[in-house]
Specification:
Length: about 675
Amino acid sequence: MTPRTSAPPRRPAPKSRTAPPARKAPPRRSAPTRRPAPKSRTATPARKAAPRRRPTPTRAASTRTVTRARPQTRRRPAAPTPSSDYKSIGSRIKIIRIVVLLVLILLTARLVELQVFRHAQYQQDANQQLRQTISIPAIRGGVYDRNGAVLAMSVPTKKIIADNFQISHPVEEAIALSPLLGIPASTLEPMLKRHTGYVVLATHVDADKAATIAKNRFPGITMVDTERRIVPNGALGASVVGVTNAQGSGAAGLEYQYQKLLAGSAGSTTLLQTPFGVSLPQSNAIHTLASVPGTGIELTLDQPLQYVTEQALAAQITATHSLSGTAIVMDTRTGQILSMANLVATGQPSGPVQIPLASQTDSGIPGVAQAQNNLALTQTYEPGSVFKLVPFSAAIDSGLINPTTPFGVPSQVKIAGATFHDAEEHGAQTMTAQQILAQSSNIGTYMIASKLGENRLLAQVQRLGFGQPTGLNFPGESSGLLMNTARWSDTDIASLPIGQVDSVTPMQLLDAYNSVANGGVFVNPQLVRATTSASGQLTPTPASSSRRVMSAESAATLNTMLQDVVSTGTGAKGAIPGYLIAGKTGTAQIPSTGQVGYVAGAYNATFIGFAPADHPVLSAVVVLQRPTYPDYFGGDTSAPVFAKIMSYALHRYGIPTSPGGSGAQTAAATKNSAKEST
């Protein structure tokens, strides 16, 4: 074991490390500059030449001691030269210039797009922000009767608008405007203080008051043209003429049907305003398009006759406790409708029979109002015995019967388990065709229909216009509900001829009977006879189309038979002094709603006819829904209304009386007049 010795003596450094001349004369340098590494650190060859020894711990410690005594100097990178800095800065500047150039190019392209290619669009958008276009409604065309009397018309009015931002003294202005607008100043004051820039103070201000407001030049007050629909005669003919809604557009009746014609074309005016909707002070309209007034329509209705028709119908609805009533008067030759009334009782309780809707307009008679719909065209019903025109006209026109053709009429008949009988009980008897029609025998009518058969009977129904539109194109008009061969049953041969199968409208019934009055020629009805421009120029509408539905001889035969209904039959209460009347009564059960069968004790009563029968000029129909007092038969309830209306119409138009007349009808008319006087 080798004894531990002290540290060996220091070995002299190799000659390569001792380069004192370099240290003795060091170059003068400034404080911050780093000195270069000594050359002795690169003198490795001398160390490589030394003999290799195995290091010992003591020697390692000695080596570490020497290292601390002579720390090595860190090598520093060489400082860049000025030429390399200039190159780096130049390249960066070039990049920045390129980027700036690209940005400028993009901005220029965008500006060109906005200023050149999309200039018009942005100009329009800018203008729209400063402009407000206000619609100027056109004056709606009027509705007139056949003599030019106003039934409905529009009058110009003004809408008063306040721009609160331009009103400096709202209290004083409210006081000044109050009497002109008919609004309390206490109500106007907060409206004038509401800072919204647009407050409607009043609508439909009369032209005179609007002119006074314009003359006073109230600050912040502007006016816009409007109109108001007025009906000088109140509810007269309301269910036919119709109504307009809050926007002034047609909502029902002829007002709705002729909306495009009556409305005209609205105009417009463009005003300047701020983006906040405030009108620019002292700015005038920059563009105005004048409105085109609507075209008026002249109806075939006669205002005085319409009034009499409604009054007579309303009085009978009240007297008979009916639910509703319809009455129509028509010119037999032209098909022009002279009056058309549709009224509803307002005090009747609801029951199994549905009551038609009533409008808010009063008829002038307590408890009766105008119907909301035109019942003459929109409501169908089973007509009863007035439908007997179908089998009688077909049988006469085909030569199967004549007025004197006899029939053995039993008290009743049974068909497929159903029993049919007449309204009044009687034993078996012989009756002529004329007597069957005059007494309205159901059994006798069935026997005539049996001669025709199913096919000819159904064909005659359509030939007389049932199941088809009338040509009026009235809103909500019904074509009716008809039986066809696919649904035909054995009992229909007896039920259909007496009017207890098909559902028709009162207008369709009148059209059919009018063809008899017109010599066998069916004439489509007409409600509008002309249009009238804003300047008052009339343009007649085309005449009604017509077609022959039976021979003139058959029509003449039926005319004579219908006269006998009034002279000796069920229609005596339809007689008028001095005139021959041809007519027919009808009483029909009312079907139950939602189930098979009829409402017990509920009937529809009808009377239809024309006058003077020897040279027909006018035809009319009256229908009462479910009369209950004093009776419910058409000859007792509806015929007197027919006589009252037709009598007025004949005298109004100066229709000559019938020469000679009929003794039986004269007696009946005299009796009717005596009853009315008492």
